[in-house]
Design a protein that fits this description.
The chain is α+β, with helices and mostly antiparallel strands. The protein is built from six helices and eleven strands. It is 49% helix and 14% strand. A hairpin with a 2-residue loop joins strand 8 and strand 9 (127-128). The two termini are 23 Å apart. Belongs to the LHFP family.
């Protein structure tokens, strides 16, 4: 018989697990990892044939994508991948970052999906599903840390120097600044480890004596604070 067990701690763990997965996924897909130095687009033709300089803007560069301003486009900003193939990613360090982040995000998405069903299923192959998910989150967190540590080592690539100036080098930004995507990925990594630790509390909450008493009373829906 399926017992639906809902506790504050288990629901909070589920919510945080989903937030961690989505924050890492959004950060990975974003182009706002680096914000380039201000520049002016190439001169464009005005309404009477004269050339006019575009407004200054700051391009952004992600792990595999970028946003630049093209004067001949009405929308102005063009965002998309600069790397069509994996080998075209700016540097070997960023390629390694992509692998580690993708592996971590894959594990986090799997845990986020499983966490939704922990209300009905608290064990898998006679092992606590919370403990298994907590272990997966810890492994994902290690992958994410490795990816984020390797990411600044790629700042010396030719691609980054186009956006950040010739002074850019490994672990030195040059004229660029760090965008919100990096901080989001960093925050998601911290949240991942919090979820890994908090999974133990979710396990304790769903296997407490109070829960067992209500199961013995024949209740199929159990809600506890």
């Amino acid at each position: 018989m399926c017992h639906v067990i809902v506790t504050c701690r288990s629901m909070l763990w589920t919510l945080l697990s989903i937030v961690a997965a989505f924050s890492e996924l959004i950060a990975f897909m974003s182009t706002d990892w680096l914000i380039g130095y201000p520049r002016t687009p190439d001169a464009v033709f005005g309404p009477h044939g004269a050339t006019a300089a575009g407004e200054a803007y700051r391009p952004t560069l992600g792990i595999y994508g970028r946003c630049i301003k093209l004067p001949h486009l009405r929308k102005g900003i063009l965002c998309g991948p600069y790397a069509v193939h994996f080998g075209e990613i700016a540097s070997g360090f960023w390629q390694a970052t992509s692998i580690f982040l993708a592996a971590g995000i894959l594990l986090l998405c799997a845990v986020a999906f499983i966490s939704v069903f922990t209300m009905c299923f608290q064990s898998i192959m006679k092992k606590s599903i919370f403990n298994v998910c907590g272990l997966l989150q810890a492994i994902a967190g290690l992958f994410l840390i490795l990816g984020l540590m390797l990411y600044p080592a790629g700042w010396g690539s030719d691609k980054v120097q186009l956006y950040c100036g010739a002074d850019a080098s490994p672990y030195k930004l040059g004229l660029c600044s760090v965008g919100w995507a990096f901080y989001t990925a960093l925050g998601g990594t911290v949240l991942t480890f919090i979820c890994a630790v908090f999974s133990a509390q979710a396990e304790i909450a769903t296997s407490s004596d109070k829960v067992q008493e209500e199961i013995e009373e024949g209740k199929s829906l159990i809600c506890l604070l």
